């Protein structure tokens, strides 16, 4: 966090530093070249003036000429040396030499009225130009260096401000434990990446919370489900040992004890199946199987129970192959057909149908039973979940059948859906990926 803002600050400062340096350097070069060109032009101009002046004055006496030259050079800060053809010096400015520091030189020829020519070295100082460059550098020093510091500071504050929500999210996330999983991290008001991050994080917490809730409820529900048969067992055994009974009565008690034990055994074994599915320890086969015989088997198993309540079970559709585990699929079908019969009405109907589409294989188990209220539908596949109607029916299930069906279906790459209308009927649909022929 802190290093991120430091890195952003550094990045911001270096980018503005580079931009500033490039800008300053090119401005400097540009100004310097401009000044050099101006200086050259001025040198040319002044030398031309000097030549004119020399020619104009060269008619007079030597003394007059020298006086003129001296006063001309004195006003323009220029310096010159004039030599005759034989090399002797006619005139030399005080202190003139060929390398005066800061002077720019030009060599040329002077012509007197008499026709005589002279060689001249002419020089002007670049003091003014150097002064301008110095001021430019001073300006750089005064503005660019502090400017760089200010831009780093701005970068730092921008980075800090941009990252503040991240810090808040981090702090809040740190506080969330198993005990306060219902808390959420604050959503920043801006709708940017950090907002998305916080939202995604909260959605993850939603899922975690639901999973943890499920686990918590699972233990409580399991204990609750097992307590009733255990209490029944205990009561029956107590009465059996307390009073004298006939052998027939003992047999009765033992049979009912066996029933309770069977019920508990089923709950425990279902829970065990689910736990092994959760831990992915339940290895499912994946081979090509046809769903129709398995569906027929389920119909066969529940036909007697159906007949007792005059319920018809119909089977539609031809063969439907999928890639799967026959015993897992058989178990899914058993549960669904059992429910369709169990939660049906007297004289009702159960329709089992198979459909093979290009992109899926669908199995549906539809009944004309009591139906399910919409508010139960989202929770229907939870462990131990039963609707109130189902509870009051005393049909004996523990509410694990659909949880197992869902777990197996998903492990086989499919999904399970339910549609229901209260008092009209319910349809469970399994959708499996198709298998190539
Ligand atoms: N075909 C159906 N019609 C109406 N309700 C159903 C149907 N299938 C399942 N349910 C509801 O879903 C609950 C969970 O089903 P399930 O997991 O098989 O548990 P169980 O059959 O042991 O009660 C049932 O208790 C019942 O309330
Ligand atoms: Mg069931």
List the topology elements.
Layout: H1 2-57, H2 62-76, E1 79-83, E2 89-92, E3 103-111, E4 117-125, H3 127-175, H4 193-242, H5 247-278, E5 287-290, H6 291-308, E6 312-316, E7 321-324, H7 326-342, E8 349-356, E9 361-367, H8 388-393, H9 401-411, E10 415-421, E11 425-432
Parallel strand pairs: 6-8
Antiparallel strand pairs: 1-2, 1-4, 3-4, 5-7, 8-9, 9-11, 10-11
Helix pairs in contact: 1-2, 1-3, 4-5, 5-9, 6-7, 7-9
The structure holds adenosine-5'-diphosphate and magnesium ion (MG).
Residues 335, 338-339, 397, 401 line the site of magnesium ion.
What labels describe this entry?
binds adenosine-5'-diphosphate, 9 helices, rod-shaped, 3 domains, four-stranded antiparallel beta sheet, alpha+beta, binds magnesium ion, 437 residues, five-stranded mixed beta sheet, Helix Hairpins
